[in-house]
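Researcher: We're reviewing a set of sequences before deciding which ones to prioritize for further study. For each one, I'd like a predicted 3D structure that I can look through quickly. This is 17.6 kDa class I heat shock protein 3-like. If possible, include the structure in token form so it fits the rest of the review sheet.
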Amino acid sequence: MSLIPNLFGNRRSSSCDPFSIDIWAPFQGFPFSGPLSNAHSAAAGEVSSFAGASIDWKETPEAHVFKADLPGLKKGEVKVEVEEGGVLQISGERSREQEEKNEKWHRVERSSGKFLRRFRLPEGSKVEEIKAAMENGVLTVTVPKEETKKPQVRAIDISG
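Model: Here's the predicted structure for 17.6 kDa class I heat shock protein 3-like, in token form for your review sheet.
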């Protein structure tokens, strides 16, 4: 196990994915807090390390399906929007638990703050029919695809 933080996290890089429009958070996953993390938060446009919310994107014959792990969030704390030009945006905020008078935190590892993920939807996406559902901390966004007409194949009799 390495004691040096991985600059790119443990998830697959989306740098080669033309559809991903992630906000780059260079200090995501670094084990520090305090003034540096506050500076990072301000530098990232108030998007915290939670910006790396894990999202899977799969394509089926009928739709594009996005699944986001958002443990502890309620559906009212998450926004799903489609921007002009076919950009799917998933955002929200996880509030930090406040320390009470007689309490003392010994460790804070759960991330908090705002998050924002954006994906450019491919041509043929039916943005007006997008559906989103939240269950057990997993957001599922389904973007139906336009039906592609299969070319008709007609058998031709061979004479001779």
